[in-house]
Amino acid sequence: MIEPGTVLEGRYEVLRRIGEGAMAEVWEVRHVALHSRAAVKVLNADLAKDPDLRNRFLAEGRIQAQLRHPNIVAVTDVITRPAPGLVMEYVEGLTLSDHLEHTGPLDVKQVKSLFMPVLAAVHEAHRAGIVHRDLKPENILLGRDAANQLIPKVADFGVAKVLDEAALKTGKRKTRVASRMGTLVYMSPEQVKGKEEVGTASDIFSLGAILYELVTGRMAFDNETDFDTMSSIVSGEYEPPERVVGALDPVVGACIRKALAVSAEERFPSCQAFAQTLRTAGTSKPKPPPRPDRSYAVTGKPEPIGKPSRKMPPPERRPTPRVRTGDTSSFIDSEDDVVNKVLAVKASNMAVSSFVVSLVSFFFCCGFGHVASLLMANHAKTLFTQGEVYSGHNRGLADAAVALSWIGMFLAVAYTALLCMGS
Q1: Pairing outcome for strands 24-31 and 7-8
Q2: Which parts of 152-270 fold into alpha helices (H)?
């Protein structure tokens, strides 16, 4: 049993317990010879009896020991008695979660100062073939440098997946690839579905959820039940950050949408690309990323999905519809939606124009007009059916224009054939 005053393997004197998790306890210790402080994560004695859990825990140490980055908590030693433990650098300070609890939503400058180093740390892990799989504010520690500036450090690779065992030389992988590992409200759709292949894009989704929380002070996916939360993640439903906080920097909002895309292929290709885009936020030359395909369809339901994740009064805002990032079955019901109004007008005008052209071409048997009408109507339909916009009956005009154009082209071809046969 570990308690203050215990000396672990003759090297580390236990000072106090820092924290406790489902798998392990974390203790502050002092090196007997060097008098330096460190943190020791000791596996729960009961769990240590399970070979799979014990091996997974030891794999965490081997993985972290290979990562050398100023924003990653370093593992420096291991102990085996009285239970397996990892000796790590001691980071004195709050977690990012605790920091948010005290400060509330952060501005662009604060977000960049804390979030950019996290992106750099995760990018370094990805370069080494490691996917964290459990990124969340609780796993980001905030230390301070000599100038008393906050230094974020990513910790806890306990559920990391080794993508390249040969390069890492950590032995056999001990993580069940098909299990849902991580914390639900920050899980990617792939993790929620229990897919075997969970890659770096999963971490980018979790980082997008963290960024959402940094700027809004609430979680993107946090419903009353786990089932509802999983459904929201898989279908891509979350309250637009622009509606939670006023005057949100457009680059930050666009970064969140791209990182939280339901399809892994539509997210940022790397943390480096994520950082390069976010770096332009708050500058004179912003470069927001393009919106993912089918990414901002909205239902007309005013009830927000997320609830405040921090103990703070919610920001004042008007009732807003939900966001759907991956579904094409719902469309915008409100002409006041500033994000999609331009597309709504464009699609509606094109639908009306294509219908008029198809009518004129039908009466004058103009084959070229029918082709033009068909192309215009199809483009209008694409804007509608991709889940981008909806504007009343005009979507029906696009459908009618397509049908009328096909009928007109068929009649034009038949009329031309009859003329050729008569001649």
Answers
A1: unpaired
A2: 165-168, 189-192, 200-216, 226-235, 241-244, 250-259
Q: What's the CA gap between 260 and 189, in Å, rounded?
A: 9
Cα–Cα dist 130/124, whole Å: 9
Question: Running DSSP on this structure, what letter comes out for residue 291?
Answer: P
Q: For 198-223, what is each residue's pLDDT tens digit?
A: 889 999 999 999 999 999 999 999 88
Distance separating alpha carbons of residues 401 and 126, to the nearest angstrom: 50
Distance of alpha carbon 204 from alpha carbon 142, whole angstroms: 20
Strands (E) across 338-395 are located at: none
Identify whether the C-beta of residue 398 lies closer than 8 Å to the C-beta of residue 380.
yes
What is the rounded CA–CA span in Å between residue 250 and residue 291? Answer: 11
Q: Looking at this protein, which amino acid is placed at residue 406?
A: W
112-158 pLDDT, tens digit per residue, is: 999 999 999 999 999 988 888 889 999 999 999 889 899 999 988 75
Q: Is 134 a catalytic residue?
A: yes
> What is the number of other CB atoms lying within 10 angstroms of the CB of residue 90?
18
pTM of the model: 0.66
Give φ, ψ of 231 to 5 degrees.
Answer: -65, -40
Place of tokens 């914390």: 183
- Catalytic residue chosen out of the listed positions 134, 203, 222, 249: 134
